[in-house]
Amino acid sequence: MNKTNFRLTDPAFIQALRDLPAFLLSTDADLDMAYDWVCEMSAPFVNDLAAFDLFYDVYNETFDQAA
Description:
- The chain has 67 residues and is mostly helical.
- The protein has one domain.
- It is 79% helix and 0% strand.
- The chain contains four helices and no strands.
- It has helices at residues 3-9, 11-27, 31-41, 49-66.
- The protein starts with a helix and ends with a helix.
């Protein structure tokens, strides 16, 4: 299994994305802080475009819904 597929199926990464909206809304974190938090909950994923896109979508959708 390559690294890209692994990150998208990593339970820690998926759980971090599930918890991300609550973290964002309680801290008003910016993108960098949110990325750091997800990395603390799972592992760095900056070189995994699919994982970063998923993270970015969750980040944007959280603030779009809150507005």
